[in-house]
């Protein structure tokens, strides 16, 4: 009557090899966030239902995982349902799993505003849950890596987050484009086209699908939404814009010509491009006036990172907002945030074989032996290696050498130290290089020196 | 109509200062786990209901957070409840939040047995959820840090986990006692007292409360449970055992005299004590024959870590088990595991002021300035410092210097570089030491060298 070992739909286990990859990525991202003064925070998985409901649109609301009531509350809710009050169910449901990191962060900023130092720069790497239909590459529990700076509308922060994107992907070795646009440029286009706010929303959302449905698809959607014919023509001109950033900006100036808000957006983009160049953080930066980003709370700079040599979709995105926290009673707090897509970045690095070799980060040395006496004999030496920071294992059982070597192979351990009766008697150790196969006899001191990271300066070539 | 920013009962936010402390602890623990070849894994927060139900006793079952059904499943379940089938509710509930890391790990081992290398040594640092009544120091979401080695009954693994406990608390600087006992010793006592299995269970559970309710309390409970008078007397002798480990073992040999299983337990304890001494990993180790540990799946070594200079209760515990995975269809897989209590360790380190200074790990340098021109002027230098690995910020807005210095103070930033019109003109920088208050004028090169971690060898005293 054993229970079948299985997971719910859309949930994943991470085995050691996969965890190593994910930890490698999040460590690079955290280190760079911290180099810019972003501080790590965490919020709980469980939020109050009313904190989350209504923030993600109708579709989003349906995808929120809610916690079932328990004990007395459950029985009394079921009782009421049985008595013909189905709405009692809704009222008894108090908690839900967070759906993203942004809404909990907004709640956090308002709740702790007296304890925070503004401008507040935070990062957060935590799982979120969405009851989406699971499919290839889409899970119900996945990790988001967000950084936000709130409480300032200075463009230096936009510049800083662009630099962070550039540095992270440089350090990971992944060639990307950082696509850059500005919501005020889109607003300027709307103004020039005579669109009202709702129509501008339709225009932006349609534009957001350009990568998926192509120019004709977007134009069809604009028509269906009843937008003027000129919108479709402007869209065509947008996609045709070419040349250097300066040329693109000139081209767009013609399109948004007289719109003050459009001009302001272009000015800000120009500032960011110039300063990123001055900082040597511009290599991946590309103006893209067709970039829209789905979320409707963006009001300024918007950006998106895509790999240039892989067909994998976006690896991250973000943008500036005027008002993150008024929902929770604190209006007028502007800021900017970016996000990294851990799953996609992992796929991209794996595909491009950019992860560091396992041999360099897992266990380095395994002691293989022929019995308890030999095992005890090597414990001290194993301990000494660990003191040097060398991850070291002693095979715990007295089994055939072949099995111990297989263990080393499967765990990608590059060195095995063999200890048999002979070695024990003579106080020597046989060091086997698992990749090249050769063996050599070493004394305890020679062995320790071989793995001492500081030994080079004392006994090496210098 | 703003939503009140608040959290559900028993949930916590972690602000930057607290996250720094927690990250410091988990990094020490992970580093030492990895030094011994333990590999990190993660399991999802959501498990199937049937994986968790029935594993934690009746009380535990009530504390499991269950996920409410959604959409069609929810309406049809509520419909059935309304039609007088309240059990339809239970059937529709499919997922739950993990309650500990052990049961998901057992599920993981069986599910992925073909992909794992045995003996499999893993560690896992993740939150768990329990719908306990929240109280001081007890939360509904808290982090567990577990390491287990499964697939071997070698005592070398018990020894290894004792060494890990010793090393972690040595590195944290926290004086602790590692209390050590053996379930076979308790079984031997039971045999000598003529207890059946159920009575041995009562004896063990009563013993587990010794710290809380005292000797008289435990004796009263033994009496109430109908255990023989001799059990209470044996208990008294147990608590009176004194002297060196060898003397304690001699004392216990008298008590379990003729029980083979009791003798085996004592032999194993003796082995662990001797080998830990040979490894110089015995300083905190203390035999304690009154240690019982609550969980009933332990069958061998059991241990618990308590601070010696603080009244804080246990900082961790663990033990050996014969059979972790038969529930999921794989019998006979033995192993040993230990756990660290992150919240308690954080409290202990804070109380003993053992955390590294914030100044050493947060942002090191803030550039304060008097306007956009000055800010842009220092961006390159800030970037150069970051390249050296120095966490650096540029204050994003042109506000009064006082406000910028306050920002540095609140974030415990130890150095501020001031850039005014004067500095800009002369190409120099004023470096202010925030703790000591003194200022000095430096060139760009001097400033970079001041913060270059490698500069000492080139230009320092050596």
The quaternary organization reads as homodimer
- Show unreliable segments of chain A: 457-462
Can you give the helix content of chain A as a percent range?
Answer: 40-55%
Percent of residues in β-strands of chain A:
15-25%
Number of strands of chain A: 15
Main structural class of chain A = alpha/beta
CA-based shape of chain A: globular
Mean pLDDT of chain A: 92
- Our count of helices of chain A gives 19
Kindly, what is the distance between the CA atoms of the first and last residues of chain A, rounded to a whole number of angstroms?
66 Å
Q: Specify the biggest β-sheet of chain A.
A: 8 strands, mixed
Give the largest chain-chain interface (CB within 8 Å): A-B, 103 and 103 residues
Report the radius of gyration of chain A as a whole number of Å.
29 Å
Order of strands in the sheet with the most strands of chain A? 1-4-5-10-9-8-6-7
């Amino acid at each position: 009557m054993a229970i079948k070992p299985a997971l719910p739909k859309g949930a994943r286990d991470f085995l050691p090899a996969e965890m190593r990859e994910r930890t490698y990525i999040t460590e690079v991202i955290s280190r760079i966030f911290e180099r810019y003064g972003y501080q790590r925070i965490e919020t709980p998985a469980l939020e109050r239902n009313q904190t989350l409901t209504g923030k993600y649109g109708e579709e989003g609301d349906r995808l929120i995982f809610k916690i079932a009531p328990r004990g007395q509350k459950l029985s009394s809710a079921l009782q009421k349902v049985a008595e013909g009050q189905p709405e009692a169910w809704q009222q008894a449901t108090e908690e839900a799993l967070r759906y993203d990191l942004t809404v909990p962060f907004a709640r956090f900023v308002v709740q702790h505003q007296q304890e925070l130092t503004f401008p507040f720069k935070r990062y957060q790497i935590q799982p979120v849950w969405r009851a989406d239909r699971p499919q290839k590459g889409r899970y119900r529990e996945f990790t988001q890596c967000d950084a936000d700076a709130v409480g300032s509308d200075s463009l230096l922060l936009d510049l800083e987050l662009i630099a962070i994107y550039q540095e992270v992907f440089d350090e990971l070795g992944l060639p990307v484009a950082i696509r850059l646009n500005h919501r005020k440029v889109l607003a300027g286009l709307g103004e020039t086209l005579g669109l009202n706010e709702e129509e501008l929303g339709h225009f932006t959302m349609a534009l957001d699908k350009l990568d998926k449905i192509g120019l004709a698809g977007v134009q069809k959607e604009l028509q269906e939404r009843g937008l003027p014919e000129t919108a479709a023509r402007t869209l065509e001109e947008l996609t045709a814009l070419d040349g250097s950033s300066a040329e693109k900006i000139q081209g767009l100036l013609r399109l948004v010509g007289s719109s003050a808000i459009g001009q302001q957006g272009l000015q800000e983009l120009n500032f960011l491009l110039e300063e990123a160049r001055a900082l040597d953080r511009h290599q991946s930066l590309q103006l893209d006036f067709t970039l829209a980003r789905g979320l409707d709370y963006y009001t300024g700079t918007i950006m998106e990172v895509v790999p240039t040599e892989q067909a994998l979709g976006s690896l991250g995105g973000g943008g500036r907002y005027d008002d993150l926290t008024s929902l929770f009673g604190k209006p007028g707090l502007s800021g900017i945030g970016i996000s990294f897509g851990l799953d996609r970045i992992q796929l991209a690095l794996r595909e491009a074989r950019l992860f560091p070799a396992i041999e360099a980060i897992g266990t380095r040395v395994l002691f293989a032996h022929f019995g308890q006496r030999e095992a005890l004999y090597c414990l001290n030496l194993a301990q000494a290696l660990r003191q040097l920071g060398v991850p070291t294992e002693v095979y715990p059982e007295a089994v055939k050498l072949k099995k111990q070597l297989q263990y080393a192979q499967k765990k990608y351990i590059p060195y095995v130290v063999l200890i048999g009766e002979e070695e024990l008697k003579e106080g020597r150790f046989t060091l086997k290089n698992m990749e090249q196969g050769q063996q050599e006899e070493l004394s305890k001191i020679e062995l320790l020196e071989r793995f001492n990271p500081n030994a080079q300066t004392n006994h090496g070539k210098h």
